[in-house]
Each structure stands twice: as C-alpha cells, then as structure tokens.
C-alpha cells in the first residue's frame, strides 16, 4: 500500500540546514500495523506528513497504492487524503469555537464523491467509541487535553478510512483510556485497515505488529512484535 | 506553601453542569514533590489552574504561602504568578511566529520588581538544559512536538520560580528525554523548589515523593513513594 524509497526532507532556516529525513525506505502492506518510535526530533512527524500527502519529500519516491505521489496534482492528492486516509495529528488541529460534533463531521462534509446520509449520526457514533458521548457539544477549550485528543481520533475515523495515520494518539491519555483506544485500533486492523502509529511508549508500540525505531532522520532498527 | 480546603469548580454549558472539582482538600509543603495522576477528564488541569492562580474556585479556600488567594486583587495575583510560579501548560501555550528564545525570555521581560541583567543569556541557559541549544531560533511550527514541549518547560524555569506546576510535561517525549527532564526536576527539588507534576504515566509519577490519584473531581487515593 505504502512504499517509500530513499526519502529525504530538508528544512532551511536562516543559514541552517536540518536533515529531518535522511534516506528513509519503508514498505507498509495492506492490513499492516506499524509503530514508529524514536527520539524527540528524529523525524517521525515529518515522515507521517509525507505518508499522509500533507508534505512532499525533496528526494526519493513515494508510491501510495501503486500511484507515484510526487507526480499527482493537488486535487488528486486532496481526494486521496479525504477518502483513503484518516490522520490523527500530534497537535490535534481542532477548529476553535467549533463543537466536538462539528469538528468530527467536517471530513464527511468536504469529501467529494459518495456523500453520506447522516453525518451527525456517524459523528456521534465515533465520538461514543472514544468515550465522549457526553461531551459532543463542548468546544475544544471546554474539553480536557485527553478529550481533545480523542476528538482528533474520532475525526480521523469518521470517514472509515483505508489507512489510519496516528501521530502520538495516546500521549495525553491515562492507561485505561489508552487501552480502550488501542483495542479499537486493533479491532479496525483486524477488519483490514492499515495503521501507522507514532508513539514514544513501548507499551503502546507493542500493540502493533511491527516496530521501526528512528533517530536523526533514519531508521536504525526494525522488529516484529511476537504476539501479533 | 499550598493549602486547598474543600475546593469546588463547576462549569455550566447550555443546560449541563460539569462538576470539574468536587471537594478537593490538599496541602503541599515547601520543598514537596507531588505527582497527580487520574483519568482523562478527572479535573487535574482544572486543579492546576486554580493552584497556579489562573482560575478561581467557586467554593472552598485556597491559601498560598499563607495568603488567602480568593481575596487577592488582580495585580497581586499576577505578581505571584510571575515571580513565584513557573507553569508548564498541557497545551504549551507558546506564541506563534516567535522564536524559542523569544518565548522563553518573555517571563523575564514582564516581571515587575527585580529586573534581570541578561535575559537572552538566561533564556539560552535553560533552553540548553532541556537539550534545545540548536533550536533557539526556531518558531513553534519549525519545532517537533516534543521540542515545543521542552520550550514550554524552559519558559517555566527561566524565572527561577519557587513553585513549578507542570501539567503533563513529558507527554510528547521519548523515554531518554523524559528521564533527562525528570532528573532536572529532581535536582531543582533537591535545591528546595516545590514541584507539582500532572502525569498519566506511573513511571513518571514515581519520580515524585508523593502521588495523589483523581477521579471525577475528587482525590480517591494518596500515597508516598518509598525511595524519595
Ligand atoms: N519547518 C521546519 N523548519 C525547520 N526545522 C524543522 C521544521 N519542522 C521540523 N523541523 C525539525 O526537523 C526535525 C524533525 O521534526 P519532527 O517533527 O519530524 O520530529 P519528531 O520525531 O516528530 O519529534 P517529536 O517526538 O518531538 O514529536 C526536528 O529537529 C525539528 O526541529
Ligand atoms: N470551560 C469548560 N466548560 C465545560 N466543561 C469543561 C470546561 N473545562 C473543562 N471542562 C470539563 O471538566 C472536566 C475536567 O477537565 P480537566 O481539563 O481538568 O481534566 P484533566 O484531568 O486535566 O484531563 P486530561 O487528563 O484529559 O488532561 C472535563 O470533563 C472537561 O470536559
Ligand atoms: Mg512529532
Ligand atoms: Mg489535563
């Protein structure tokens, strides 16, 4: 499904050059469940943004479901993002002055192609799945940190995406709520959804099937999780 | 240093009433190191905002260093916040389009009373302590999630506060960076600084001297950490 070949991404800041990604090659097959761990600043979010078609690499090739992403036009990229991918951002990126329910419905309202009959009903279902049934009319500044994080997760799930990209989705959750979210991800993965999850906690990474470890823009380690 | 008696805080939203804090009584002595754990939505951040004089309780009493906080005027409260307390926010609250160095200097520039000679020099020192010496001219959107979190930590330390309130300060940090930050906190505590730290990870909580566990706006458990 996802094929990255020697991906590089460099940021230029004043006179400084940051090699955020320094030659990443990676394959994620359909139905895979990959965890990405690594030090703060090692390039995990930059990699996720490229996989999620939110940013483009400076070097190397990215094939998503057989299509060469670097040669796709803006509309085609936007369609893939809205219809195939659900993204949980590390910083949530919720709209202020917009309720949880409205935030979660948004991806259903701006997708082209197959419209959905009852967006509010679907949005309520996913908010209930993440334990927020009683908070659907709260705006982000009326929610706790972990509740905001769960709204971001619900929004990523509402379009029934084929691929879920989750960047530190449990960083602000207690252990029991974390377990509930990870069980939900494992259930979706059992149903065939491909999942890439960034985390800095090994307990969380062990819910995946495979783990890659990053440092300084490179993959330094690659291993299977025995039980899955 | 910090004395809370039967503190209650209620939010009203449309027809709904949220009892965010439902009778909290707590004492934190000078030089204490308290960790607060509890489920997402249990009231931890709301409690921290009251301790940090950013919000007022609806009921109960709060004495900070012997002064009754509910009877202090805005200026006196602002002085206490700027001179005695360093706050690491769960959402960081960094200024956009403002470099890490500028963000960290801010508390030094708006404190009344004893001005500091070299704010930039002091700001660089604390940024170096959290491992960000090479990122001081980056703005928040040019930093990774864990780097932003560390800028928020540095900003809380730059005024040499007597009390550090840290709301989930390691949620976006890998284990090694987390250890570095917690060692720094333990060192500051050994020097006499009072620390209250919210976390949802027991490994992190065990770096404190005492832990309280919250649920539904109440303290349900209270225990000492043996080794400290
Ligand atoms: N726009 C930018 N300009 C300059 N440097 C950047 C920019 N965005 C990211 N960086 C740098 O690129 C590196 C990788 O950032 P990235 O956000 O991918 O790290 P990360 O692995 O997700 O870290 P964390 O675990 O802290 O979230 C960091 O050192 C960061 O400072
Ligand atoms: N302005 C507000 N209006 C209405 N409800 C609010 C408001 N702010 C917070 N709440 C609610 O109060 C409760 C406590 O929130 P708080 O942020 O203190 O939780 P928390 O323990 O810090 O959670 P987390 O671990 O997820 O950060 C939550 O259920 C939240 O929805
Ligand atoms: Mg990141
Ligand atoms: Mg909180």
Quick overview:
The structure is a homodimer of 228-residue chains. Chain A is of the alpha/beta class.
State the assembly state of the protein chains.
homodimer
Could you tell me the strand content of chain A as a percent range?
Answer: 25-35%
- Which two chains share the most extensive interface? A-B, 34 and 34 residues
Q: Mean pLDDT of chain A, nearest integer?
A: 95
Question: What structural class do the secondary elements of chain A suggest?
Answer: alpha/beta
Walkthrough of the structure:
The structure is a homodimer of 228-residue chains. In chain A, the strands form 2 sheets. In chain A, strands 6-7-8-3-9-10 form a 6-stranded mixed β-sheet, with helices on both faces. Chain A is of the alpha/beta class. The first copy, chain A, is built from 7 helices and 10 strands. Bound molecules: adenosine-5'-triphosphate (2 copies) and magnesium ion (2 copies). One adenosine-5'-triphosphate sits at the interface of chains B and A. The site of one magnesium ion has 4 residues of chain B, from helix 1.
Give the tags.
228 residues; binds adenosine-5'-triphosphate; four-stranded antiparallel β-sheet; globular; binds magnesium ion; alpha/beta; six-stranded mixed β-sheet; 32% helix; homodimer
């Amino acid at each position: 499904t996802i094929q990255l070949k020697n991906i590089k991404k460099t940021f230029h800041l004043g006179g400084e050059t940051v090699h955020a990604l320094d030659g990443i090659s990676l394959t994620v097959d359909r139905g895979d469940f990959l965890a990405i761990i690594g030090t703060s600043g090692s390039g995990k979010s930059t990699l996720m943004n490229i996989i999620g078609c939110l940013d483009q690499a400076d070097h190397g090739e990215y094939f998503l479901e057989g299509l060469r992403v670097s040669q796709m036009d803006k509309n085609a990229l936007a369609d893939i993002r809205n219809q195939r991918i659900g993204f949980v951002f590390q910083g949530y990126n919720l709209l202020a002055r917009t309720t949880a329910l409205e935030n979660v419905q948004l991806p259903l309202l701006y997708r082209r192609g197959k419209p959905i009959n009852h967006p509010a009903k679907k949005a309520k279902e996913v908010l209930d799945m993440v334990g927020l049934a009683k908070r659907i009319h709260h705006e982000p500044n009326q929610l706790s940190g972990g509740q905001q994080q769960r709204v971001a997760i619900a929004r990523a799930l509402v379009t029934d995406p084929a691929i879920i990209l989750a960047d530190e989705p449990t960083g602000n959750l207690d252990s029991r709520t974390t377990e509930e979210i990870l069980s939900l991800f494992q259930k979706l993965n059992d149903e065939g959804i491909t999942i890439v999850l960034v985390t800095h906690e090994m307990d969380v990474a062990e819910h995946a099937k495979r783990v890659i470890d990053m440092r300084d823009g490179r993959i330094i380690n690659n291993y299977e999780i025995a039980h899955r």
